[in-house]
Amino acid sequence: MKKKDIYLIVSIVLLAIIAFIGIKLTQKEGKRVIITVDGEIYQEATIDEEKEIEVKTDHGVNVVQIHEGQVSMIEADCPDQVCVKHSKISKSGETIVCLPHKVVVEITGEEKELDSLVQ
């Protein structure tokens, strides 16, 4: 490898690190949990609640848990279990998706932020 190749690789890695840090620093704490099934709102909750929500659909059953300010999918009867293996989420914009059941669990900011996006 030439010197210029090394400089290019180091520059790309540094740029990726700076972008990652920038994204993490600008992410806001989540306030609301919105569960949608096939694009329709199934249920909403605040992230401060302590509860389990059973999502029953024609496609199957999922169980969403809100605990200590974090949200996770603790059960699903889908074959791949990708949604159950997903890490817990708590920041605005993070999602857990169960494709076989068409279920999306999303963390959002305050309701005021949602209202301004709709208008």
Could you characterize the architecture of this molecule?
The chain is of the alpha+beta class and about 120 residues long. The protein has helices spanning about 5-25, 80-85, 110-119, and strands at about 30-35, 40-45, 50-55, 60-65, 70-75, 95-100, 105-110. A four-stranded antiparallel beta sheet has the order 2-1-7-6. The relative contact order is 0.18. Residues about 110-119 have low confidence and may be disordered.
Task: Record the SSE blueprint.
Layout: H1 3-26, E1 32-37, E2 40-46, E3 51-56, E4 61-67, E5 70-76, H2 82-85, E6 95-98, E7 103-108, H3 111-118
Antiparallel strand pairs: 1-2, 1-7, 3-4, 4-5, 6-7
Provide a brief overview of the structure.
The protein has 119 residues and is an alpha+beta fold.
* % residues in beta strands: 35-45%
Helix % is 25-40%
Provide mean pLDDT, rounded: 88
**Rg from Cα:** 18 Å
Q: What is the 3D form?
A: elongated
Q: What letter string, H or E per element, gives the SSE order?
A: HEEEEEHEEH
Total helices: the number is 3
The biggest beta sheet reads: 4 strands, antiparallel
First-residue to last-residue Cα separation: 54 Å
Spatially, the strands of the biggest sheet line up as: 2-1-7-6
